[in-house]
């Protein structure tokens, strides 16, 4: 086995410290107060995790309309580290009906706990605290379940035909709920489909759920499935129900359909000629094998690491000791510290250890025009530097030759790396994944173009890490997280997946380089896995990779 794998194994502890297990968290709320006499709340729960004293959003549930006792379908999946205190905060909001973002939402209460508390108790219930930490009437229950062994997912496509009509002036608005029956006779909501309006023959969207969530890995476990007619007041009408098992569902794996009669027990007793309240059809059942980050690395996937450095005038004259670019003979500046901390981890996953390094926001020789994507080594045909040390040397050599200027535009450099990632995407193989590290001292000027570039890049094998250097106010950088938790282009197109990580370097000024690296790179393994799994790209077999690769003497 080549050195890259040994290096990868050695540094994986920094890249992704040993996760004890993955945990699925489900949320139920009770007793939410009505906003007013005319309408019930439209609740949504936001999960946040504490990192270096800041609460960062992890994910959020769906919005359930007109509901005071919501059981959310959304499952939060988090990594559990036994050796760490992982602080969680659940925030409940009443979402404005015509706007899914939090800006217009009413804050209804919050609950803080640790992941360890939930895992040890399996089920944690607490009152939600309102503003000023006063105890409200509403409560929240979080149920934890370990994802043990089987990380496979199953993709299901349901439809129905001839459902009972429950509405006077229009047809039913059906949705389907699937519950797993637990060993203790309780039931657990696994999935709730969207509502298909005014349709007795609905086709629901394909959805993905872990095999662990669906049946706890037990293919004969009973699943209770209920069809409802949605009503805007939250009092949904019961259409019918049926029982199934995953073993039965697997009958739809080879292109066949599996069908169940949807039964209303009351009608069955009352009506003489009652047959059913409709037929529910499973059109597709597909098991998706989830591969790990190491599967891809061991299969030959290389991390292509690119650095982009901010050379705008706001950094200060590099000859002045107050400048963020000042080269101290014995003490590296913040740019160098961040570069080395992140770069030294990434270089273990790149066999040739040649890294492109670019600068932006400077006037460059010979004509001193402003450039936002120039090669730091001034070799536009080959911007690669030998190792992280080579990037450091190119950075130090270029400083006296350029004139710091502006503005702070980062879209061009994202587009440049995206072009390479786009070429890789067309190979349909898991061979190169691109990480762009952007080091900047201030808020970016081309926010609209940057959002557009990131949305485009989210379709590619690529992640973007932005480290804010210096003491500027970086709060505007949170614009990279959209209004409703999803980054959107100026045209409103959402990112396909979350690929951006932003951290201010000052949060790690007194921490070890490993702490910064761990923080900014922690999401990368999941981003790599999410990208390739979503594209259905499997890791290359290690033996196949070894035989196809030519090693030097």
Automatic annotation (TrEMBL):
The keyword NAD does not apply. InterPro entries: C2_dom, C2_domain_sf, C2B_Copine, Copine, Copine_C, VWF_A, vWFA_dom_sf. Residues 6-128, 134-261 form the C2 domain. GO terms for molecular function: calcium-dependent phospholipid binding; metal ion binding. Gene3D superfamilies: C2 domain (2.60.40.150), von Willebrand factor, type A domain (3.40.50.410). GO terms for cellular component: plasma membrane. Signal peptide: none annotated. Keywords: Calcium, Metal-binding, Repeat. One of its GO terms (biological process) is cellular response to calcium ion. Belongs to the copine family. This is C2 domain-containing protein. It comes from Megalops atlanticus. The lineage of its organism: Eukaryota, Metazoa, Chordata, Craniata, Vertebrata.
């Amino acid at each position: 086995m080549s050195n890259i794998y040994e290096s990868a194994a050695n540094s994986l502890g920094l890249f992704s410290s040993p996760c004890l297990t993955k945990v699925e968290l489900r949320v139920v709320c009770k007793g939410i107060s009505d906003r007013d006499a005319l309408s019930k709340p439209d609740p949504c729960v936001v999960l946040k995790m504490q990192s270096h004293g800041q609460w960062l959003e992890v994910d959020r549930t769906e919005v359930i309309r007109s509901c005071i006792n919501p059981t959310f379908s959304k499952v939060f999946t988090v990594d559990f580290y036994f050796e760490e205190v992982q602080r969680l905060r659940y925030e409940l909001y009443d979402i404005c009906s015509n706007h899914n973002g939090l800006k217009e939402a009413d804050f209804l209460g919050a609950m803080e706990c640790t992941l360890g508390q939930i895992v040890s108790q399996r089920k944690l219930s607490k009152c939600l605290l309102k503003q000023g930490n006063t105890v409200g009437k509403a409560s929240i229950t979080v149920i934890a379940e370990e994802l043990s062994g089987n990380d496979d997912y199953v993709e299901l496509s349901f439809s129905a035909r001839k459902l009972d009509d429950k509405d006077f002036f229009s047809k039913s608005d059906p949705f389907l709920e699937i519950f797993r029956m637990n060993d203790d006779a309780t039931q657990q909501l696994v999935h709730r489909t969207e509502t298909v309006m005014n349709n007795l023959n609905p086709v629901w969207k394909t959805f993905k759920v872990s095999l662990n969530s669906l049946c706890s890995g037990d293919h004969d476990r009973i699943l209770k499935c209920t069809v409802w007619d949605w009503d805007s007041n939250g009092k949904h009408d019961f259409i019918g129900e049926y029982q199934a098992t995953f073993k039965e569902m697997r009958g739809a794996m080879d292109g066949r359909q599996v069908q169940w009669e949807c039964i209303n027990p009351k009608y069955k007793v009352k009506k003489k000629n009652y047959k059913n309240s409709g037929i529910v059809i499973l059109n597709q059942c597909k098991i998706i094998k989830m591969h790990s980050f190491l599967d891809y690395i061991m299969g030959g996937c290389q991390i292509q690491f690119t650095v982009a450095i901010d050379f705008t005038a706001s950094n200060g004259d590099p000859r002045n000791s107050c400048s963020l670019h000042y080269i101290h003979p014995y003490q590296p500046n913040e740019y160098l510290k961040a570069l080395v901390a992140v770069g030294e981890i990434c270089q273990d996953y790149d066999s040739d250890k040649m890294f492109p390094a670019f600068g932006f926001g400077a006037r460059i020789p010979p004509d001193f025009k402003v450039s936002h994507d120039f090669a730091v080594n001034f070799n536009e045909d080959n911007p690669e530097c030998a190792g992280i040390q080579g990037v450091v040397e190119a950075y130090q050599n270029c400083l006296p030759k350029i004139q710091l200027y502006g503005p702070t535009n980062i879209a061009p450099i994202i587009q440049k790396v995206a072009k390479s990632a786009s070429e890789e995407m067309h190979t349909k193989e898991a061979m190169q994944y691109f990480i762009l590290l952007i080091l900047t001292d201030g808020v970016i000027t081309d926010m609209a173009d940057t959002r557009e570039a990131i949305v485009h890049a989210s379709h590619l094998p690529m992640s973007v890490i932005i480290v804010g250097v210096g003491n500027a106010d970086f709060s505007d950088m949170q614009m990279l997280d959209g209004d409703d938790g999803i980054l959107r282009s100026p045209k409103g197109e959402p990112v396909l997946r979350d690929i951006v990580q932003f951290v201010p370097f000052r949060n790690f000024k007194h921490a070890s380089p490993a702490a910064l690296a761990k923080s900014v790179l922690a999401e990368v393994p999941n981003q790599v896995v999410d990208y390739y799994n979503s594209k259905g790209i499997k890791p290359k077999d290690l033996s196949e990779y070894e035989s196809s690769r030519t090693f030097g003497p």
